[in-house]
Amino acid sequence: MLSTLVSSLLLVVTLTGVLPYVASSSGDVGVLSNGSPGDHLLMMERFHGWMAKHGRSYPTVEEKLRRFDIYHRNVMFIEAANLDGRLTYTLGENQFTDLTHEEFLAKHTSRPVAPSDLVRNEEETVITTRAGVVEEGKCKAAPDNVPHSINWADLGKVTEVKDQGEICGACWAFAAVATIESAYAIAKGVEPPVLSEQELIDCDQFDDGCRVGLMSNAYQWVQRNGGIANASTYPYHERLQTSQNKEKDGTCEEAKLREHAVTIRRYKYVRGNCEQQLMAAVAARPVAVLFDAHNYCFQHYKTGVYNGMCFHEEKLIGPCTSDHLTHSMAIVGYSGKGNDEEKYWIAKNSWGDNWWGEEGYIRLKKDVADPRGLCGLAIEPVYPIV
Ligand SMILES: *[C@@H]1O[C@H](CO)[C@@H](O)[C@H](O)[C@H]1NC(C)=O
User: Fold this and answer.
1) N or C: which terminus of the chain carries fewer CB neighbours within 10 A?
2) CA-to-CA distance for 379 and 381, rounded, in angstroms?
3) Which of these, 304, 283, 280, lies nearest to 150 by C-alpha position?
4) Nearest atom within ligand 1 for CA of residue 233
5) Structural domain containing residue 56
6) Which residues form the Peptidase C1A papain C-terminal domain (predicted)?
7) Considering 72, 168, 171, 225, which one is annotated as catalytic?
């Protein structure tokens, strides 16, 4: 088996070893390099280490070689980007290193939020949508007494980072639940309860399960339902779906709908496009944000303050766009205000705490020139009130 693999690998090396590497079929990335057969064998060893670490196996030798090729390109991109020295953050290998960028987006982010679903809270316009109240007025500075920094995770008010798993794009449910857990813990002065994303995925008819959803809809659903269950009552059970039946979620386990662990009274939008008001809101509790994850470097983020700049064909371009709102996270803290040099948001993601990011968190550049915030994070922040 192994010798078959090695000989077919050598064949592949002979055929493709002199081709330049481009890490994405759509040309998203372009770190060029010529691999030698020796490099390939070392890389294959490294790939086997990576597979073992992530418990990965592939059904056929062909699939394994295809995954190896993608892994190799990603690793070369990661190393070249880190060596270049112009990124403000570091990339690294993680559970996504054998995926192309397109596959990564399809599996781990949601469909884009429709622009018509966004609350319009532009300058001076105040609109009340659904059950939510938009904070009024212009983008005002945060009050002076807002702390210089806060991290609700360090204060014991954030549950452990969860993991959406391999196929479910319900980031909206994870961000909504994270903020409900923290809001409850802060309001009641207790440890955060671990609440159920699966209940939202299966039962919240305002949203679309593993495909797309909005935190505001999720809060509204919890309000109407009268509460949300503990995760221990209604656990996450990512269904093993093939791409063919990805359209099917679980059916709602209605018997559990009355097992209310936490109730929310209402929810509130932070004034859009205003990082100052977002800071004032996060000073009081974690806030859920939409995020444009459509950036090749985001897939490989390891540590540091992410500023949305990434390499494209050896040029540093960016920052990230703000119009593919395909991801959601909970902002659980920040550091720095005023004229500080390094200011960042602390975001809790839902891709596990082992491999991606800083134990599942990412620091995002705060107070950027674009009023929409880095990668659109200030476009529509929202939080629940318990
Ligand atoms: C939810 O979990 C908490 C903590 O374990 C427990 O105290 C509470 O009774 C549970 N609530 C429900 C409705 O299951």
Assistant:
1) N
2) 6
3) 283
4) 14
5) 4-85
6) 146-385
7) 171
